[in-house]
Design goal:
Elements (H helix, E strand, L loop, with lengths): L10 E2 L12 E5 L13 E2 L5 E2 L3 E3 L8 E8 L9 E6 L4 E5 L9 E8 L3 E9 L2 E10 L17 E6 L5 E6 L4 E5 L16 E6 L5 E6 L4 E5 L16 E6 L5 E6 L4 E5 L16 E6 L6 E5 L4 E4 L16 E6 L6 E5 L4 E4 L16 E8 L2 E6 L4 E5 L5
Antiparallel strand pairs: 1-9, 2-6, 3-4, 5-6, 6-9, 7-8, 7-10, 10-11, 12-13, 13-14, 15-16, 16-17, 18-19, 19-20, 21-22, 22-23, 24-25, 25-26, 27-28, 28-29
Length: 393
């Protein structure tokens, strides 16, 4: 199975929008393009899907980035399994977006941002079938001078609370770490060119160090956090989406989007979902501080418990927005998870409020536990919301 991240790219999930459709289609279109594309053909696939193709350029802070946007309309891959699309041209690439299946009439956009230009052939394959290739032409997004674009704006991707509960750390996709309250920054990766973006962080037990986890499995240690190994440089079926440290702080787990678990240091492997079919990809994990086991949460709120009690999930419910992260009570007697619109779901723990009825301007990117009756949510822009016993710091 190919790696899910294309060279130099990033995947952005656009907002779902309801569209009434009488047939199943797949649409390729440009996102926020500042230049038009002349070629927009339509082809028919063997099982009735259709495709058009458009590419374009980003404007503003990401001026110079080529853009191809993929939208799946009612696209359950025949035979199940993973859906993989490829773009072949001056710079070949592929994205294996497992479990990326939309419900009837509801489009599911996927954007891949590359520093690319030129004519490409795009194709989609799945277990037992494929869609004929269609063409897309991405303009020269550097205005012909070949100069690279300015760095993309980094967004917050995670947070971690201090042992006292009087502060927290925020980490951004470029590896920048900011400290708030009684938290202390022991360094970050913001001045280093990363192969892939940072997707999460985990603190040491005493709060005097932390690890950062990149989507390619690379691990970066700061403060008293010891390096116990990583998956950096190894082939991954799916990108890493988060990590968690052991109760004693002498090891850590990393989790991939397919539910694969990788254990380092004194982190015990209790099982994973890496070889199982999932309805939706895994987005995060949390540790049971009592048993030393862990929970995984999928974007539909499905929970997978390993050497940890199962308290419930939203896997069989319709959610307005996907789940993005979870946290567990320090006492180990329950967990919560949050959706990108700020909705919070509590299991065997008090519900202390959410933003679900009044979503914030930016999507929620992470959450952290303060105690059994408190937690924080953080937006991608770094705005933090406190609930229950969690203080505003």
């Amino acid at each position: 199975m190919p790696n899910t991240w294309s060279r130099g790219g990033k995947i952005l999930l656009a907002i779902f929008m309801m569209v009434a459709m009488t047939c199943a289609v797949v649409v390729f279109s440009g996102s926020g393009a500042s230049a038009a594309v002349a070629h927009t053909p339509t082809v028919s696939a063997a099982n009735g899907e259709y495709a058009t193709a458009v590419g374009g350029c980003f404007s503003g802070p990401e001026q110079g980035r080529g853009d191809i946007k993929v939208t799946f309309y009612n696209f359950p891959a025949p035979g199940g399994g993973n859906t993989v699309w490829y773009y072949n041209g001056p710079e070949n690439g592929q994205v294996n977006e497992a479990f990326y299946q939309s419900t009837a009439g509801q489009p599911t956009p996927l954007v891949v941002s590359e520093w690319i230009s030129g004519a490409y052939s795009l194709s989609v394959t799945w277990n037992g079938g494929s869609m004929p290739a269609t063409s897309v032409s991405v303009p020269d997004c550097t205005n012909g001078n070949g100069s690279p674009p300015p760095p993309a704006i980094s967004s917050v991707v995670g947070m971690a609370a201090t042992p006292s509960g009087n502060g927290y750390l925020l980490v951004s996709s470029n590896g920048a770490v900011s400290a708030h309250g009684d938290a202390v920054s022991y360094g970050d990766m913001s001045a280093t060119a990363l192969n892939k973006p940072i997707v999460g962080m985990a603190p040491t037990a005493d709060g005097k160090g932390y690890w950062l986890d990149a989507s390619d499995g690379g691990i970066f240690s700061f403060g008293d956090a010891q390096f116990y190994g990583s998956m950096g440089g190894s082939h991954l079926n799916q990108p890493m989406v988060g990590m968690a440290s052991t109760p004693g702080g002498h090891g850590y787990w990393t989790v991939a989007a397919d539910g694969g678990i990788f254990s380092f240091g004194d982190a015990a492997f209790h099982g994973s979902m890496g070889s199982s079919h999932l309805n939706q990809p895994v987005d995060g994990m949390a540790v049971d501080m009592v048993t030393g086991g862990y929970w995984l949460v999928a974007s539909d709120g499905g929970i997978f418990a390993f050497n940890a009690p199962f308290y419930g999930s939203t896997g069989n419910l319709h959610l307005n927005q996907p789940i993005i992260q979870m946290e567990a009570s320090p006492s180990g007697n329950g967990y919560r998870f949050a959706a990108s619109d700020g909705g919070v779901f509590s299991f065997n723990l008090p519900f202390e409020g959410s933003l679900g009825s009044n979503p914030p301007p930016d999507p929620i990117a992470g959450m952290a536990a303060h105690s059994s009756d408190g937690y924080w949510l953080v937006e991608q822009n770094g705005t933090v919301h406190n609930f229950g016993s969690a203080p505003a710091v």
